[in-house]
Specification:
CATH superfamily of the largest domain: RRM (RNA recognition motif) domain
Number of strands: 9
CATH class of the largest domain: Alpha Beta
Largest sheet: 5 strands, antiparallel
Distance between the termini: 71 Å
Radius of gyration: 20 Å
CATH architecture of the largest domain: 2-Layer Sandwich
Order of helices and strands: HEEHEEHEEEHHEEH
Strand content: 15-25%
Shape: elongated
Structural class: alpha+beta
Number of helices: 6
């Protein structure tokens, strides 16, 4: 009887996976693949069905370094790219077809996951730059990058420490206003004390020399 239940559950998960594949192809023209890659598409984990970036990050960062997280507006799926294929495979095995509990959410959600060749969303980046904007490739040298990172006080305040707990695989530092990961916004009524560090002076000086 237990074997029969497991078999039925696996068939249900596979059916949901196939449905998610068809949805992705229809909406974005992106094809899912059968072999493991660094990149996943996660159905039932999108802005369109009420999941926030903060909630999804807390789930997917349990399995490795998340290099990219794309959440298309009004869509019920998100794209995640891990640092390695092994990390993506670990997340796939742990989360596909599994019910997860979300913070501040009225009900649990079952995730359905597929591999994709790369994290891609055709509307994520404008096709052309706005008038007056110029991109300068590799403007910062490795040595200048090191100096900038060393000039930042990573653990100097409570807001930074709280953000660090949320994004445990990345280091963050807020200036001006604290970024709220639960709603992807800032509270303009609560400015952070202090000004910009040496990192901005170094970057501005480099830009003016170009």
């Amino acid at each position: 009887e237990d074997h029969l239940k497991v078999h039925k559950m696996k068939k249900k998960v596979l059916r949901k996976q196939v449905r998610a594949q068809h949805t992705l192809m229809r909406h974005e023209g992106i094809e899912c693949i059968s072999h493991a890659t660094q990149s996943l598409v996660i159905a039932n984990a999108g802005l369109g069905n009420g999941m926030s970036r903060h909630q999804l990050l807390r789930i997917v960062e349990e399995y490795g370094l998340v290099e990219t997280l794309l959440m298309p507006p009004n869509k019920p799926y998100s794209f995640v790219k891990y640092g390695t294929t092994e990390e993506a495979k670990k997340a796939f095995d742990a989360l596909n077809g599994k019910e997860v509990t979300l913070e501040d959410f009225s009900q649990n959600v079952v995730l359905y996951i597929n591999f994709v060749e790369k994290v891609f969303w055709r509307n994520a980046v404008p096709t052309s730059l706005p008038p007056g904007l110029m991109v300068i490739e590799k403007i910062i040298s490795p040595e200048e990058e090191r100096r900038m990172l060393e000039s930042i006080d990573w653990i100097g305040d409570e807001d930074t420490q709280n953000a660090q707990k949320t994004l445990k695989h990345r280091r963050v530092k807020h200036f001006g206003y604290e970024f709220c990961y639960d709603n992807n916004n800032v509270d303009k009524d609560k400015p952070l004390p202090g000004g910009l560090p040496e990192i901005c002076d170094l970057f501005l000086e480099k830009c003016l020399k170009q």
